[in-house]
Every structure is written in structure tokens, then in C-alpha cells.
Amino acid sequence: MDSILRLHKVRHEYSGREVLNIPELSIPRDSITGLAGPNGSGKSTMLRILSLVENCSSGSVFFNNKEIKPFDKEFRHQLAYLPQETYLLKRTVFENIAYGLKIRGQKNGLQDSVMNALDLVGLTGQFLSRQWYELSGGESQRVALASRLVLKPACLMLDEPTASVDLESARNISRAILRARQEWGTTLVVTSHHQSWLSDICDQSIYLYNGRLLEYGYRNVLLGPWEKVDDQLSVMKMTDGQQLFVSQAPHAKSCAVLPSHAIQVSASSPPANNKQKLSGLITGIYADKQPELLSIQVVCGDQQFIITMSESELSKEGFLPNQKVFLVYQPQDIVWLP
Amino acid sequence: MEFILEGLVKAFQLLYHGDQETYSAIWATIKVSSISMTVSLLLGIPLGYMLGYLNFPGKQAIRTIVDTLLALPTVFIGLVVYAFISNNGPLGDLGLLFTLNGIAIGQSILALPIVIALTATSVESLDSNLQLTLRSLGASRLQIFLTTVEEARLGLLIAAITATGRVLTEVGISMMVGGNIKYHTRTITTAIALETNKGQFATGIALGLVLLAMAFAVNLSLSTLRRRI
What we know:
Chain A is α+β, with helices and mostly antiparallel strands. Chain A has helices at residues 43-50, 73-76, 93-103, 110-120, 137-149, 167-184, 195-201, 311-317; strands spanning 3-14, 17-28, 32-36, 58-63, 66-68, 79-82, 155-159, 187-191, 204-209, 212-213, 221-222, 227-228, 233-237, 243-247, 256-257, 264-266, 276-287, 293-300, 303-310, 324-329, 335-336.
């Protein structure tokens, strides 16, 4: 696999507290990599380290197999990063988008480059002369994205680009991301809380928890908190009043994964036995990364589950979006993460 | 009340007839305040930026010292500068005593803490995402400094206005270091003090009005600039 970016033994800490520990991670060239995980899992820190905005406490970052550091003149113009909280310079939209080109010494063709970038994010030329304070939240986010896309970076890191924007802005941002890769082969690393959006747009996904990579993919991570029921079971109370029973939790804030293959989906309520069940709603059916498999996204309270099944299985069961279903699992199938 | 009106009339007469002594004091004031403001802005903005932007051991102590220097009495600065540039002082050979450059040194010391403190406050109050954004766009350290200064331009303008006001209106430094020499180091403020001591209230008021007009002109031009940026 040809990797454009690589983290090697990267550790990062704030005030002595470890927030990231990645022994080895490669980002394939021309790919879109999704980075998922709960708040505080280290996603933003990892993006800042990958984009040379922040230096890691120890370890190395490689770009095209060369070790890179913040402010490296040779590489800093090939990487761009869009923070979660975007900041626009106190200037017009044109000046904001042209800023990165100007600091790279470009003087000619600024107007055309800026117009192309605006078009990529679905904004018109009427925005060019607008001041930063004349834009809505979604428009600001798109202008901020345009100011990165105009640079045609080899790698672009996007931190929650669709958070707190409306549906149209989110759609335009997705389109712009895909066009950036298609038109000039930009490699993208994107974080988002929207797992369905990530799985829709990304070639591969990585799940971070407590600053570490989870080996089980990004699916069906259960964050607790757990309450002890007896010597064998613990329970997590969900927002819709349902209870998710699991094998005894190591401690109240342990993290667990319910593997996709351990969940059965049923349209009718299964008979009572030693298995546990949850009722939920199908919120989406997507093509899985594995050929001939489909992913069914089921939401139970505030917990999202993704279950994979074959096309024939799905058509046999006749599952449809917005359909109420039951998820059946064994508490001992839960995998506790270290 | 009569001498105030008399002063107003005399102010227009002095200016209209091109009174040499008055214009000499005006030019001395403009020259010396321009030099001191240029020096204090050139030194104060980078120092204020570093104080507001960087985190280093002793930063809080330096901040406290700079804030304390905001209240420096002008006569004290005058005394210290006098001690350094008088014939017996360590810089006595430079021949700066009783010159406009000598006054400019004292006024720069007066303006510098104002520019540093207000620039630091202005930089500190900028959105913390600014630096992240500039680095994420590939800016170098120098480009980050220049853009940050540009983003803090309103705060810097306020620093410049405040320092200019303080420099234009000070008496102690001009009097002690400049010596109030007619046609040479006499500034508007030292001329006002002298005329008042001589009982020439009308001339004093006339010069005071000129000083007021200058302060107004500086503020007007800066506030026009503020509206544009």
C-alpha cells in the first residue's frame, strides 16, 4: 500500500496527560480516510499533528517517506487543515480565499483560482466582496473550506466539516471533498460524529478511543456508563428507557464493542431466552466496503448500531429504512477494550 | 472670561499672521512627537506582540512591570533621561541634551509601555483559532506575525491614539530634557507653561487651542482610518 502520510510511534501529551498514542498508522495516497471516536478521543489532536499544525511530544510523522516537522518550508505548503471551529480573517471573502495563495507567492490568476474554489463549495461570485461578518455559519464554513481547496494541497485534513451546518451546506461540502480528490488527487482525512456520513464518503475508517486506535473498526462502540446488575451482568441505560445488558464491565467507564456479526436483526419480537434484545429503527441501508454486503444502520435511543448482511439476506427479510426492528445479542459476545 | 475670549481671538491672529514663535513651537511639537511615535510603534508593536502571543517563564512579571510603567510620571522620565544625556552622564558625549532628539528619547520611553501593553492586550484578545488557521494554511512565522498584527489593527490603532495623546500633551520631559529654548526646543506645552508663568494668558490659551486642534486632527484622521479598516 502506497502511503502518503505515516505516523510512527507518535505520542502526544498535554500537561503530562497522554492524549494520543499511535504506534503505527498509514494514510493511503488518494484515499479518503474517516476518523471517528467520541469527544476527547484524540481525533482533533491527530489531525493537527498530521497537518503539521502541532508537534507531537514524541515520535515521527512522515510525508512521502520523509520525516516532517512543523514549519518545514518544503512540506507545509502541501498540507492543509480545516479546524472544527473555523476562523475567517477580518477581510472580504476574496481576501480570505486568496490569502493562502498570496503567502505562497502567487500573484497572477488569483481571481480565477478564487472563483473556481467558490464554485467547488457551491457559492457564487456574489460572495467575493462580502465581509467576513456578512456570512452565515454554513457560508463561513464553506468559505473556510474554499480557502483550503484553492491551495490544491496534496493532503487535506478536515475536522468535523459538517458539524453545525445545514443539510445543503453539508451536501456541498461532501461534493467539494469528492471533487478535490477526483480533480487533483488530494488525499483527505476527515473526522465526523456522523458515522453514516463517514461510511458514505470514506474509503476506510479509523476509530479512536482515549487516544488509541481501536482494532475493531468503528462500529458499535459502547461507551457506558455501566451499572453493576449482579456478578455476571452490567447494564447501560439508554435515553429511550431501554437497558443494554452486557457481561460484567471492568469499571463504570469502560469501553466495549458489540461486534456486528454477533447481532441478529429481526422484524418481529424474538421469543424470550437467554439472549438480550433491543428495539430500534432502521435509519439507513448502505453498500458496505466489502463487496456484496450491505450495512444496516439501526438507532436504539442515542446508540447507533451497524449490522452487515448479504443482499439476499436483506431481500429475504425485506428490511426497509424507517422500519422498527429488534436486535438480538448475547451479553457474553461483548468485547471489552483495554 | 474676557481673557479666554481674548485668547481665542489671539490664537487665530497668531496662526493667520504666521507668528514665527508659534509656528516654531508647532513644528518642534510635530517633529518630536513624530520621531517618538515612530520609535515607540516600531519597538512597541513587536514587543507587545511577543508579550501577548508567546508563553514564557516570567511573562506575568514582565506584564506587571509594563503595566506599572504606564503610570510613569513625565518628570521622572525627564530626570532619568537628563541624568543619562547630560555632560556627566554615560551618553553625554552624544550631545543630546537640550535637543529635540533628546526630548524624543524621553517621549519614546513614555509612549513605549502604552504601545506594548495595549498591543499585548489586543493580541491576547484575538480569537485563539487565528494562529491555528494561519498555520493550517501554511504560513511561516513571519507571515503569522504580520497577519496577526493586521488582524489586531483596531487595537493597535487605539494604542497609537492613546500614546500620541500622551506624547503630545506631556510637559515634564520637554521642559527638563529640552530646556524650553526659543526657536529650538520649545514645544507647544512648554511654551504654554512659560507664557502662563509670564502672565500672558491669552498667548497660553492660543497655544492651548492649537494643541487641542492638533490632537483633534490626529484623532480625526485615525478614526477615519478606523472606519475604513
